[in-house]
Design a protein that fits this description.
single chain, alpha/beta, 18 helices, globular, binds 4'-deoxy-4'-aminopyridoxal-5'-phosphate
Length: about 525
């Protein structure tokens, strides 16, 4: 083989590995070329399809190359490596090579492509170069460019409390504006309840600003204990442990219970904190197709002979899709294959079940899940995360979950607000009823207009768009008209699954809901990005 061929082959291989790394979140070392993609690496068919779609865009293929029969990374490299690689594709994945004069690993520097506009956040994750800040330098002008085009509007500041409407400083318009608020997780409006705010104020006076320590050494107050008891009772479980956040609850529980011998079997749409917890634990990761019980069973079958423990994990309500985990089947499969089950109820607590206790209550299966995680920062209107389960398991976590042992606890006044929130939740179930009446109203209206709300059955209603740039343009137009909702692109969702994510609140009036639908229809008609009736 001539030298140029060797160089170009290396380049293709590096690119394909980079794409697989980005989609699978595996490190370079874990991507053993001969490992089976599904069985050994937990890269399922959906993810392989997404990877293939990306590679089909990059290589000059006469017709889309399928991944049928591709079982290993080597086979994937072999299949696509036959085709020419577009320089633009290379630049998109390794933009720094456009400005470097040489790169030992690749052929030569390439020029800035015409499709700079198609760069996304994904294009600025590590490039293996010696300067860790090289990607930062490439990202800075990209961020400036996107912001000046009005395509990025992350982190705009609210002026005061946010309910069904919020006054936010619109950085693009350069002024404060009142928005219809459909991007908040304040589902039950407890964040604005005067009783909750009063409890926080009273406790801050009594306990001070904070206690500056971890729960094991100086950071426990009577209010923390009361909060844990209240959460355990809400969920109908023995005991509860409160973490500094929902993110750290997942990372803490997974890394405490799992080790390199064990396997995490995870829905492909699970929250990032679950994936990060599994990575930190060093456990093997297996992925099943979204809410697909046949796929889950296949993964369990393949893992049946493994020596270590197995943990099935899923969001109760999927945070970007709004559908509900198929809990009864998951419980059955967990028993059948001797696996434990963890459900992350971040968006289910306060929303699902007549009493708002979450996914298990929704299915009449309270107490039947090994571990339930929740966040205190959404419907319950505070800050922190929690895990409920059997007392012995919770006691174990108090000593082995580093995110609990080595991190300061939530302040006592935050615990006080949460205790009041839970009391209100229990005394005023009509808040949940109103929330559901709003959810049904808005979902039906959107569906009638022809918007694709997927399988949503919660307060999270997606408007599926697909293409990332279309979604950004749509999101910008919607925001300009005063509707504040989330535009979700990679890595919040897989590439090709970009969407608007609309959160319904108890505090929304019918007028708010109607106005939101009108804005969405107007934008769809004007931009012609989505077909509506
Ligand atoms: N799990 C899920 C499913 C979530 O949606 C979130 C928050 N987006 C978390 C965990 C993390 O919760 P917190 O914001 O309290 O850290």
């Amino acid at each position: 083989m001539v030298e140029a061929d060797v160089g170009s082959r290396k380049k293709k291989e590096r690119l394909i590995r980079e794409v697989v790394k980005t989609f699978s979140k595996y490190s370079e070392d874990e991507l053993i070329p001969s490992a089976l993609l599904q069985e050994d690496l937990g890269i399922d068919s959906i993810m392989i399809a997404a990877i293939a779609a990306e590679l089909n865009k990059m290589f000059t293929v006469p017709q889309p190359v399928t991944t049928q029969g591709v079982e290993t990374l080597n086979m994937l490299i072999e299949k696509f490596g036959k085709y020419e690689l577009g320089e633009e594709a290379w630049y998109r994945w390794f933009p720094s090579s456009a400005v470097r004069q040489s790169d030992n690993d690749v052929d030569s520097a390439v020029t800035v492509p015409a499709d700079y506009d198609r760069l996304t956040i994904r294009d600025f994750v590590g490039d293996g170069g010696a300067d860790l800040f090289a990607k930062v330098e490439r990202f800075a002008p990209f961020l400036k460019d996107r912001t000046s085009q009005g395509l990025f509007w992350y982190g705009m500041a609210a002026k005061d409390r946010s309910a069904n409407r919020a006054v936010i400083f619109d950085e693009h318009a350069g002024q404060e504006r009142e928005f219809l608020m459909f991007a908040s997780n304040n589902y039950l409006d407890l964040a604005n309840d005067p009783r909750v705010i009063q409890a926080i104020g009273d406790a801050a006076k009594k306990f001070g600003a904070t206690h500056t320590g971890s729960r094991l050494i100086g950071g426990t107050s009577a209010l923390h204990k009361e909060l844990e008891a209240k959460l355990a009772a809400l969920k109908g479980r023995d005991d509860c442990i409160v973490f500094p956040s929902g993110y750290s609850a997942n990372v803490g529980v997974l890394s405490a219970l799992l080790g390199p011998n064990d396997v995490v079997i995870s829905d492909v749409y699970n929250h990032m904190s679950i994936q990060d917890g599994a990575k930190l634990a060093g456990a093997a990761r297996r992925i099943y197709s979204h809410n697909d019980m046949d796929s889950l069973e296949q993964v369990l079958q393949r893992a049946a002979d493994r020596p270590g423990g197995k943990l099935i994990v899923a969001d109760g309500v999927f945070s970007m899709h709004g559908d509900i985990a198929k809990l009864p089947d998951m419980i059955r499969l967990a028993k059948q294959y001797n696996a434990r089950l963890l459900i992350d109820d971040a968006h289910a607590t306060g929303v699902l079940g007549e009493r708002g206790s979450g996914t298990a209550e929704h299915f009449g299966l309270k107490g039947a899940v090994d571990l339930e995680v929740g966040t205190l920062s959404k419907a319950l209107a505070g800050m922190g995360g929690f895990v409920v389960g059997n007392r012995d398991v919770i006691d174990y976590l108090r000593f082995y979950a580093n995110a609990y042992v080595f991190a300061a606890a939530i302040p006592a006044h935050v615990a006080a607000g949460l205790i009041t929130s839970i009391e209100i939740l229990q005394q005023e179930p009509e808040r949940i009823e109103k929330l559901w009446s709003n959810i049904r109203y808005l979902r039906t209206a959107l569906q009638q207009q022809g918007f694709d709300t997927e399988q949503s059955d919660s307060a999270i209603i997606p408007v599926a768009i697909g293409d990332e740039q279309k979604a950004m343009t749509f999101g910008r137009a919607v925001r300009r008209r005063g509707l504040f909702c989330q535009t979700v692109v990679f890595p919040g969702v897989a590439v090709g699954e970009a969407r608007l994510r609309i959160s319904v609140l108890t505090s929304h009036t019918r007028e708010d809901l109607d106005q939101a639908v009108d804005i969405l229809i107007e934008v769809a008609c004007e931009t012609r990005l989505l077909e509506v009736n």
